[in-house]
Amino acid sequence: PCHNFAEGAGNKVGPALYNIVNRPIASVAGFGYSGALKAYATDKTWTYEELNGFLYKPKAHVKGTSMGFAGLKKTPERANMIGYLRSLSATPAALPGS
């Protein structure tokens, strides 16, 4: 895989994804983010909405991103991925509407 998912596992080709939900975008220490993502990230966090948009089609959501992943077009697949990413935390972010 391009990312690590375990706490403290560090970066790979992509940044570590542990505790990503509600984390500031482009904020993992030691990772070389693309200029496009750093410019996009200003005052933004990985909310459920941001994750949904990025996972749908990364290159459309953040033009110029170096993320090579084409995206998850099916809503249930994105929902499952976001649910999985939410689980990667000692204190998972609250679900919308809760």
Keywords:
98 residues
By DSSP, the count of extended strands is 0
Supply Rg.
13 Å
> What string gives the helices and strands in order?
HHHH
Task: Summarize the main sheet.
Answer: none
Please work out how many helical segments DSSP would assign. 4
Amino- and carboxy-terminal Cα gap: 32 Å
Mean pLDDT: 96
Question: What's the assembly state of these chains?
Answer: single chain
Percent of residues in beta strands? under 5%
Summing up helix and strand content along with how strands pair, one would put the structural category as mainly alpha
Can you offer a commentary on this structure?
The chain is mainly α. About 35% of the residues lie in helices and about 0% in strands. It has 4 helices and no strands. The chain has helices at about 35-40, 50-55, 60, 75-85. The longest helix has 13 residues, at about 75-85. The model has no long low-confidence stretch (mean pLDDT about 95).
Please outline the helices and strands.
Layout: H1 35-40, H2 48-56, H3 58-61, H4 75-87
Helix pairs in contact: 2-4
